[in-house]
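Pipeline run #58 for the internal structure catalog. This entry was flagged by the ingest filter as a single-chain record with no existing model, so it goes straight to prediction. Upstream metadata was stripped on purpose; only the residue string is passed forward. Reviewer on rotation: M.T. Logging verbosity set to normal.
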Amino acid sequence: MTRLHKTLGAALALSLVLPAAAAVSVTPAAAQAAPNPDVDRAVAALRAISTMRADFVQTDRNGQRLTGVITLQRPGKIRFQYQPGVPFLIVSDGAALTMIDYEVRQVSRWPIRNSPLGALLDPNKDVARFARLLPTGSPDVLSMEIKDPRHPEYGTLTMVMVRKASAPGGMQLDSWVALDSQNHRTTVRLSNQQYGVSVPANTFRYNDPRPNLRH
């Protein structure tokens, strides 16, 4: 593993799981997004995903990239398996996101709701209340910016969905951008999405690198 992969892997992984620094002024709760049928359809499509497996390319704001495979199982479970040579794993068991650094034998956990990915993973998060549509220039592409005005420290997640008849709810999750208040941006683009795949029970577990511990 190169030093570049080590540094890049850590930065990208942390940007996905860490909440943003609390440096953004809080917007009053009354300024929630107005109901929108397109947002409702997109949220319904996300919740219609039972399981999904896809390839991903993860890019930081400097254009550095990592690849891997993402496995999703609703509600709340996800696994980012990075490319060979990157000693990081991100797993959510439905309650918390865990980042494992196998090189230094470190394990860190955060509640799903405190992560930029909470909008995607947290089954209790009312995404539609805090989503607003962004212009895309195409009737077949929908972009939603999701930010909880009560918790700006959780960051902003912008999801891009594409109309596709064979996808759950008729819309396919294409990509997302996680942005924190310090302007740390991480883009994740998906390809080769497969829905309704069989997911072994141990997919969202990990080998704990700390001595005598396993999860």
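catalog note: The chain has one domain: 3-193.
catalog note: The radius of gyration is 17 Å.
status: ready for reviewer M.T.
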